[in-house]
Give the backbone structure.
Amino acid sequence: MKFLTAILLTALLSFAIGLFTVLPWYSFVFCALLVAVAIHQKPFKAFLAGFIALFLLWCMLALITDNANEHLLSKKVAEILPLNGNYILLIILTGFVGGLLGGMSALTGSLLRKIK
Amino acid sequence: MRLVPFLIAAIITTGLIIVLNTQLKTGKSKTPKLGYFLSPQYGFWKNAEPANVDFNQDIKMPGITNQVDVYFDERLVPHVYAENDNDAYFIQGYIHAKFRLWQMEFQTHIAAGRLSEIVGEDKVATDKYFRRLGMVYAAENSLKVLDANPETKAACDAYTAGVNAYIKSLKPEQIPFEYKLLDYKPEPWTNLKTALFLKFMSWDLAGKAEDLTYTNAKTYFGYDDYLKLFPITQDSLDPIIPKGTVYEKPEITVKTPSTLDSLYFGRKDTLTNIPPIKPNKNNGSNNWAVAGSKTKSGKPILCNDPHLGLNLPSLWFEMQITTPTYSSYGVTFPGTPAIVIGFNDSCAWGVTNAGRDVKDFYEMKFRDSTMQEYYFNNTWHKAETRTEIIKVKGKPDVEEKIAMTFLGPVMFDKSYPSDISKNACIAVRWKAHDASNELQTFYKLNRMKNYLDYVDAISTFQCPGQNFVFASTNGDIAIRQQGAFVAKWKQQGDFLMPGTDSAYLWQGIISPKENPQMVNPERGFVSSANQQATDATYPYYLGRANLFPPYRGLIINRKLAAMNNITPEDMQHLQTDNYNVFAEICKPVLLKYIDHSKLNDTEKKYLQMFSTWNLRNDINEKGATVFKVWWDSVEVATYGDEYAKATVKLPWPDESTLIDKLISDSSNYKFIDNINTPDKKETITDVVTLAFKNAAKTLQDLEQKNKLEWVKFKDTRVQHLLQIPALSNLHLPIGGGVHIINATSENHGPSWRMVVHLTNKIEAYGVYPGGQSGNPGSKYYNNFIDYWAAGKYYNIIFVNKHDVRKDERMKWHTVFVNG
C-alpha cells in the first residue's frame, strides 16, 4: 500500500510542479525526495517507487503527446539522437531519464530520513 | 555512519542533474541538454503539435486598435482582415512569429554575424565574414531612411510590436523546437532585424564578388587570354529587352581613367584573400507576363518563380492582407512586413534577380599598420575604426577592428583572413551599404492600381536590383530592370581597382527612366530569366557579373513567342518544363567531334543513351545524366591542364563560353591544347573523345550504384536551415536542373511558383516547397513539398471580407480584439 501511495503521490506532485515551467525542468526531484521522506520505505523500495512514478509519468505524457502528433516529431528526434528513427525507443528513453532521476531523488530522500 | 549513504546518493543525484542539464560534446556538435530536451513538460515533446490542431481562438491583444479577423484555409494560409494598416502589420508580425519565430531570428543572426553566439566557435569564420563585409553597418544605414519615411516606419513599428507581443505570450515550454535543440532563447525583435533581413537578401542576390578571383585570373593568364575565358558577350543571348531596341543618348557620360592600362588592366595582383563564403551562383529566377492578345481569356497572365536555396522552414510564408484601402495576396518574408511577390485586386507583380555588379573592391594605401590614415587624391584622410564584438558560445569574445574609409569598410587587411600572405588592404564599395528603403517599394506594390503606380512603386528600389514584371486587369503588361545601378566604364570593377585615385570611383547612378524596360510590346509578352538585360547597344556597361547563363531566357522567349490562346494551365506546364535547351545546343557539337573508332562497347552504350536522348531532364532520363557528366568532363579536359598549375584561387569559365568557342572558334581556341603534351597539339576531337572516355568511367560507377537516372543523379533535397537530415526532405522525385525552366538542382530551385490570371476576379495558383508552419513537429511543416515536386499547384483563395465569413474553404477563425 505504502509503495503504491508513494508512486502515485510522487507522480502527481511531479506532474503538478512541472506545470510551473518558470521553475527548472528538474524541480520534480524535490517532489520525489519529499515523498520518500514522508512515506518511509526501505531505500531500494523508495528508489523503485520514485523510478516507477517518473518513468510512468514521463512515458505516459510522451505517449499521449506522440499519439496526437501521429509520431511526426518523435520519428525525427529519434533520428537526431540517434535511435534509428524508433519512436518507441525514444519514449522509453524519455521515461528512463525521468525514472532515473526520480528514483535517485527518492533514494536520497529515504536515506535522509534514516539519518534521524 | 548513516550520513555516508545519504551523501553518496545526494551526490550521484546532483551529478545526474548536472549531466542531464549540460550540452555534451559529440564529435563536432553538441547534444541538447538531454533531461530538459526529453522532459515531456518542458522539452521537445511540447513542440509535437496535435495533428488535429485547432486554430480557432479569441485572443486579447493590447497593441491593436480594432478587431482583426484571421481566417486560415486548410493549407494554413492566413487571410488577415484588419480595419487599418497598423493593425494589419501588427498581426502579420504576430503570425510570422507564431509560425516562423526561430527561422526569423536565425536568418537575421546570420546577417548580423551572430551564429557563433548560438552554435559555437565553428561559425566564427562565417560571422567574421559578414561583420567585415559591413552587413550591420549597411542595416543601420538603411534603418535610418526606413525610419525617416512615415509609412515604412509605421509598418515596421507595428510589425515589430506584433512579433514581440507573440514572443511575450510564449511560456518557456512553448519556444520553438530549434531553441531547445541548441539551447538558447528568443530575444526581442527590432526594426534593425527587419533591416538586417533585407540586407541578407541583398547579399544573397547582389553580393557576388568574383572581382578578386577575376583579378587573379587576369594576372595568371594575362589580359588577352583572360578575355578568351571570360568574354563579356554570349552568342546565344536573347536579352530581356529584344535586340535591336534603340536607346537614347545616356544622361551620364562616363569618363574612363587615363591611367587605365598601367593602374588597372596592367596590374599584376595575386590575391589570396578570397571570401570563404559566397552567395549561390544559381540564385536566379523566371518571370514573364503574357498580354491578352495571346491568352484564351483575352486577359493577361503573370508568372514568377524565384530560384533560391531550398530550405526548411521555407524562406516564404503565404498570406493575404486585407484592409479597407487595399487587399493583397502573395508570399511574404518572415521578418519583414508587406507582401513581396503576389497580386492585389487589379495588378500582379513578380521579380527576378538583375545580378548587376554593384560591389567593387579597392586597394587602399594606409600610412602605417595602425590603419588610421589612408592616402587618396594625394592627401592623407582619417579612417574611422568600427569595432565588432563576436560573442562565442562557451568561449571568449572575438573582437574585430575594421577600418572604415569613405568608400566603405576595409574588408581585408593583415588581420583578415589570417592566413593571408600578401598584406593588401582592400575596401569594399557596395551599393547595399548605402541607405535605401526597399520596403517602401513592396508597400506601394501591395496597393498599386495601375501601371503608373507600379512605375512609382519600383522607381526608388535600389538594391538588390530586380527585374520587376507587371500585369493588370485592364490589360497592361510591363517589365523593368530596376535598382540603383552604377554608370561604369567598360570593365570597371571587374577587377580590383586602385583606391587612391578619384578617377576610379563610381561616377554616378543611372536614372531609373534609363533602366532597361518595356511596356505592352507588340510581341505580346515580357520575360526575364536573369540573362543580360540588353544587347551591346545599351549605352552603359552592364558588368561581367551580369553574365548569367542565357539559356533559360532563350527557351522561355522561344516558347512564349510560339504560344497562343494561353491558359493558366499552359503557364503551369511551362514553369515546370524540363526541356534542356543548353543540351540542344551542345548535342550536335559533341556528336560531331566524338571519334567512334576510339570507343569500346561500354562507351558506345553510353553514347547511344545520349544520342537517343530526347533532351528532356525528366526524372527517368539516363541521357540527361550522360550529358551532364560528359559536358563537365569536356570542361575539365579543356581547362584542367591550365588550371592545375595555378596556386591561387581562380574562377571557372562559364559553360556558355566553352560552347560558344567550340562552335564559333573551333579551329583555334587555345585552351583545347593540352599544355602537358608539348609535342602534340590536341584537336577538339581529341578533347571531346578523351572527355567521353573519362565520363564513361564515372557513368559506369553511377550505373553500378543504380544512379544513372537523372532524378537519382541530381538527388534534390529541401534542407533544414541547420542542415539536419532528419528535419529535411531528401531524395525528391523531381526533374529539371540548371539552364532548364524548371531550375531545380540539388538543393536550389523554384522556391515559389505563381501563376496569376488577371481576369476581373483574379484567379491565381501557387505552391512552394515547404509548409506554412516552421515547426518540425507540425503536419504543416513540409506538407507542400510532394505537391511541388509533382509540378502541381494549389488554387489560391482570395476573397473579400464579406464573402470570407461563409467561405467553406476556411478551416479556422482567429479573432484578435483589443484588450
